[in-house]
Amino acid sequence: MDTQPNKTSGLFDDLAEYESSVYSQGGEDGALARIFDVIGHHNRYFVEFGAWDGLHLSNTANLRLNDGWQGLLLEGSNNADGELVKREFVNADNINQLFAKYDVPKTFDLLSIDIDGNEYWVWQAIEGFAPRVVVVEYNVFFPIDQACTIPYQPDWVWDRSYYHGASIAALQKLGCAKGYSLV
């Protein structure tokens, strides 16, 4: 999602042609490169939670390793090494405190949320921080035109079922309320 819909109107008609995966799961590396080619950079800072080991299926590894970006990687599982990837269980109750703890800039270029469940609720809870672009994992098994999300549970851990997260319609609605538009 991009916070500058007027400036970019028509420039993101089809990001599919830019999709490529160096580290990302679904072509996000190429789509993000295209978005930042169009809107420019503010500070080349990212926050990614659900970062695994900082490489595997990462939406920020390519930016960090090949384009000079820096940022904060958070992961709640044992995949976090504690140095590159900080081991923190992210939820809606602690996200703002974690941003403060790790000195996240109030405005930064990219937020990537992939925690297999509470994405909607965590993004909704973020206050006082303004990422320019937000990438959020959505549940492809929820109807595309219905705003649905699982109820918030602070200790939610994905059980590998189809029941997790939020629909793209729910995330689009939340994004619009926060001043973003879907690209």
Q: Overview of this structure, please?
A:
This protein has 183 residues and is of the alpha/beta class. The radius of gyration is 15 Å and the shape is globular. Mean pLDDT is 90; it is low at 2-12. The protein has helices at 5-8, 28-39, 61-66, 95-101, 119-125, 168-177, and strands at 45-49, 70-75, 85-87, 107-113, 130-136. Helix 3 links the parallel strand 1 and strand 2. The chain starts with a helix and ends in a 6-residue tail after the last helix. The protein has a five-stranded parallel beta sheet, covered by helices on one side. The chain is 25% helix and 15% strand.
Describe the structure concisely for a colleague.
Helix content is 25%, strand content 15%. With 183 residues, the chain is α/β, with parallel strands linked by helices. Residues 2-12 have low confidence and may be disordered.
What does the largest sheet look like?
A: 5 strands, parallel
What characteristic shape results from the CA principal axes?
A: globular
Between the first and last Cα atoms, what is the distance in angstroms?
A: 6 Å
Q: What's the pLDDT, averaged over the residues? A: 90
Order of helices and strands: HHEHEEHEHEH
Query: In total, how many beta strands?
Result: 5
Structural class: alpha/beta
Order of neighbouring strands in the sheet with most strands: 3-2-1-4-5
Helix count equals 6
Cα gyration radius (Å):
15 Å
Low-confidence stretches: 2-12
**Residues in β-strands, percent:** 15-25%
Percent helix: 25-40%
